[in-house]
Write the structure tokens for this entry.
Amino acid sequence: MSIALTVELAVPQTVGGQRAAHQSLWLLARLCQARQGGEPGGLVRLAELRQQFPAARSLRMLVSRAYRDFARWGIRAGWGDDSSRDPRFLNPDGRSQGPFWLPQAEAERLCLTVEGRQATPGEVADFLGQSRPAAPSARPAEQGVEFWLTLAAAQQDLRQGRLLAVLDASGGRQERGALAGFKAASGLAGNGLQQALAALGEASAWRRLDDLGAARQLLAQLRRTLKNDGAGESGYLDAMEHILSAWVAWGQREAEQAEAILREMRQVEPRASVVRHHPRIRFEWYNLAALIARARALAGQGPDLALRKQMAQQALDHFARALEAAFEFGSFDAAQQVAANTGMAIWLFAEEGLCGEPQTASPAAMRWLLLSEWLCRCAGSGALSAWNAIYLMRIARGHCPRTESPSLAAFRNYQPLVPETILAQAGQLPWLDAQALLPVSWLALAESLLAAQQENRARYSLLQRCGLRLEHAWYALHGGAVAAAQASVQQLQRELDGLPASDRAYFCEALSRLPTRCA
């Protein structure tokens, strides 16, 4: 039997009598808590490390150091979604992406202590920086208020993109963030409906954090709960669980699974009625269905051209229905998403000869994107959104040559559209000051968005980060800032492994069209 190992949480912190780095000790204690606390699979997700250590320059380095410390302490920890595996046979190449776990036998031989005595669960939670659930109010009305206040704050954080906690210089929590907010709401839930609302919010936060495995796991638990306890009178919870499951599948580029979920929703009652009559569900259904149709229309030269044109038209029709639904339930945030998707679809379809002519499609696409940006700012954002910026920059350089590995001199002679030209092409739009929505230059736009990410003023998905890095590299190189372009290319290449194969292929092809010295 393995010898028990003492893990001292109080300063000076040690493992088996050896001094321990705080970050490594934190991960070890969290892994032990997850396994001994009976959490599913004992899994600790990468997003949780990101939340705990937002100032860490590289989570990959943090994880590597922790696992080196684990080996020095004689502890075998695993990684990946299957926590039943033997850690000795796991491929370390994917370790930095998590999730992380301890085998049951390893967790059982660890003894977490505080000043030499066994730590209580509350002390472990304090060490980990976890919020303890507030004591329930003696009066049900006050308890109900506490839940709705917590849920509302979490939903607002989600809308504003504040997904993870923000810590001050001493490590104290300044802002809770959406993920922790939904977890807190779950602890305050007084019935199954409230629990389900908190779970839906948490799954949405995990999806926005690119941890689709965590979102999928939470939705599977919610599905079982709804099956056992009932989906409620309106059917909204059940329908929203299906919608989120379809979005998670789409995020992993499992288009057939996402499409199957959407198709089943229109065929089976009462979900079919919910899609027809609930504008929020209808918006989500048509927006995702349009994205799937758009992807099929643009899927290479294999399908028949007539079929591709049909799919392109279907995508535009679905986007139109989604936009109607967004305005029906009064959400500018939802409407700006559809407007941006519509604009990019119009331009992509024209470029592929599927719908319209390129010379007329470009101004139309820009008008949609400017509408999207105006709606985005009306919804509370003070700057260009990442997707609108990426789409505008891509369209602006879309007519430039697509030569593989051009010389730097030839590349710098390309003539992308400047913001002033886009403004002229878009024409007059009522109620909208288009000039105020456009940047002074595309490079300045890309730099400002990347700075917002680096300074924690904005949080972008992995796909958005890759898109911004590509556009920044392109325009920096075009402007002669070779070192800045090379830095963005290197960062992009480090992040590509986390993307689905189809998205990764797009960026690899785009990189091949940059001068060799940069790509």
Q: What stands out?
A: Confidence is low (pLDDT under 50) at residues 133-142. The two ends are 53 Å apart (CA to CA). The CA atoms of residues 1 and 109 lie 9 Å apart.
